[in-house]
Design goal:
Layout (H helix, E strand, L loop, with lengths): L7 H18 L3 H7 L4 H9 L19 H14 L6 H15 L2 H13 L4 E4 L15 E4 L3 E12 L6 E7 L9 E7 L5 E6 L10 E12 L3 E2 L5 H37 L1 E2 L2 E2 L4 H29 L5 H25 L10 H9 L9 H13 L1
Parallel strand pairs: 1-4
Antiparallel strand pairs: 2-3, 3-7, 4-5, 5-8, 6-7, 9-10
Length: 380
C-alpha cells in the first residue's frame, strides 16, 4: 500500500537528508566505527544543512516546525543508510523538547543557537548503575546551596556522553524516594567536578559514543534549573512518548530495510541448483516478515499522525515501541539465518543490522517496562 503520511515538503526534506548522508556521513562511518565516536565537524555540517533543531523557533536558527514527520523522515533515512553513529534523533527529539518547552527565554538565548548550529551537542542523563529503566530509583542528588545546587552521583549508558557539551541531568532534589522530588539540571562541559568515564565498548552502534558520567560536588547554578524544581518526573513522562515513538519509527524502517536486503539476496543466492527464493520455506519466511512489517508500519504511521495532533498517549507509544522493536529484532535474526554463513560476516549488511538493532528493545524503556505500562492502563 502506498503510504499517505508524507507530503511533497517531507519528500524534499528526505532528499536533503540523503544527500547529507552520502556526502558527509557514509564516507567516514567505518572509521568512526573503529574510533568509537563521530567527528565533531559532522555535527556542524548537520547544522548547516538544517538537520538540527527542527522544532526550534527560527529566531534561534531552528526549523520552526512542530511537524514530527520531518523527524520521522530523518530517522528513517539514517536507519536505511545504516548510519548508527550520528545521534541526531537523540539531540532533536529527546533532548530538544526539554529545551524548547521548559527553558526560560534567557536559557534559550544561551543554548538554542548552538543547539541548532551543531556547536553544542546534547545528551540526557537518566540511567544510573543499578537502576536501569526504573526512574523512581534515581540516587543522584542535587542539594540546594542558595544560589546553586551541589550535584553528586553517577550515570551510565549515556548516548553522546563523550561529545556532549550540554547534559540534562535528572537528580533528586528532595530526600523522599519514589517519583517525587526530582529535578532537571543542565550541566555544561568544563564544569569543575563533572567527569566522563569510559567510552563504553558495545556490541553494536560502535560509532555512537556511549559513556559513564560522574558528578563530584558539581556546582550547578540555579540559572541552569530546567523547568520547576521537583517536577522532573512529570516532564519525563510527558516527553517519553515522543522518545518511544522515535525509536518505533526507526525500528519499523530497520525491519523494512533488512527485509528488502534479504529479499534481494535470496533471489540471487543458489542452493541445490536453484535460487533460495524458489524454496517454499524461504517464500513463507519472507511472506510472514513482509506481512508483519506492513501491519507494524500502519500502526506506527498512525501513531505519528496522532502525535502531530497532540493525541498520542503514553500507552500507544509504549505499544508502538515494544512491538516495532521486537519485530526489528526478530526480522534481523531471521534474515541473518536466511543469509547462512554469510550473515555472520561483518561485511554483510545483515550482520551490522543484527548487532546495531539489538539495543532497540532495551533503551527508551525495555520491552518488559512497556508491557507493564500497557498492562497497568488496562488492569489498574
Amino acid at each position: 500500500m502506498e503510504r499517505e503520511l508524507y507530503g511533497p515538503e517531507h519528500e524534499a526534506f528526505r532528499e536533503t537528508v540523503r544527500t547529507f548522508l552520502t556526502k558527509e556521513v557514509l564516507p567516514h562511518h567505518e572509521r568512526w566505527e573503529r574510533e568509537g565516536v563521530v567527528d565533531r565537524e559532522v555535527w556542524r555540517s548537520a547544522g548547516r544543512q538544517g538537520l538540527l533543531g527542527l522544532a526550534v523557533d527560527e529566531e534561534y536558527g531552528g526549523g520552526g516546525t512542530a511537524d514530527f514527520r520531518h523527524s520521522a523522515v530523518l530517522i528513517e533515512e539514517f536507519v536505511r543508510a545504516g548510519a548508527s553513529g550520528l545521534a541526531l534523533s537523540l539531540h532533536n527529539d529527546i533532548v530538544g523538547p526539554y529545551l524548547t518547552r521548559l527553558a526560560t527565554d534567557e536559557q534559550k538565548r544561551r543554548w538554542l543557537p548552538g543547539f541548532t548550529s551543531g556547536e553544542i551537542v546534547t545528551a540526557i542523563a537518566m540511567t544510573e548503575p543499578g537502576t536501569g529503566s526504573d526512574l523512581q530509583g534515581i540516587r543522584t542528588t542535587a542539594t540546594d546551596q542558595g544560589d546553586h545546587y551541589l550535584l553528586n552521583g553517577a550515570k551510565t549508558f549515556i548516548s553522546n556522553g563523550i561529545l556532549a557539551d550540554l547534559v540534562v541531568v535528572v537528580a533528586r532534589t528532595t530526600p523522599e524516594g519514589g517519583s517525587g522530588g526530582q529535578s532537571l539540571l543542565v550541566v555544561e562541559r568544563g564544569t569543575p567536578g563533572f567527569e566522563r568515564g569510559r567510552n563504553l565498548d558495545k556490541i553494536g552502534q560502535k560509532a555512537q559514543d556511549t559513556a559513564e558520567l560522574f558528578f563530584d560536588d558539581v556546582r550547578v547554578p540555579k540559572e541552569n534549573l530546567l523547568g520547576e524544581e521537583n517536577q522532573a518526573f512529570t516532564y519525563l513522562m510527558a516527553n517519553l512518548a515522543q522518545e518511544r515513538l522515535a525509536i518505533a519509527v526507526g525500528a519499523a524502517a530497520a525491519a523494512e530495510e533488512i527485509l528488502d536486503v534479504t529479499t534481494r539476496y535470496v533471489k540471487e543466492r543458489e542452493a541445490f541448483g536453484r535460487p533460495l527464493a524458489r524454496l517454499q520455506h524461504i517464500r513463507f519466511e519472507i511472506a510472514e516478515m513482509a506481512t508483519e512489517a506492513a501491519v507494524t508500519r500502519a500502526f506506527v504511521d498512525r501513531c505519528i499522525t496522532e502525535h502531530d495532533r497532540g493525541r498520542l498517549t503514553p500507552v500507544d507509544a509504549s505499544m508502538a515501541k515494544w512491538w516495532a522493536t521486537e519485530l526489528q529484532k526478530r526480522v534481523a535474526d531471521r534474515c541473518l539465518q536466511l543469509h547462512g554463513g554469510y550473515g555472520y560476516m561483518t561485511e554483510y549488511r545483515v550482520a551490522k543490522a543484527f548487532v546495531d538493532g539489538r539495543v532497540q528493545t532495551i533503551y527508551g524503556g525495555t520491552t518488559e517496562i512497556m508491557k507493564e505500562i500497557i498492562g497497568r492502563s488496562l488492569l489498574g
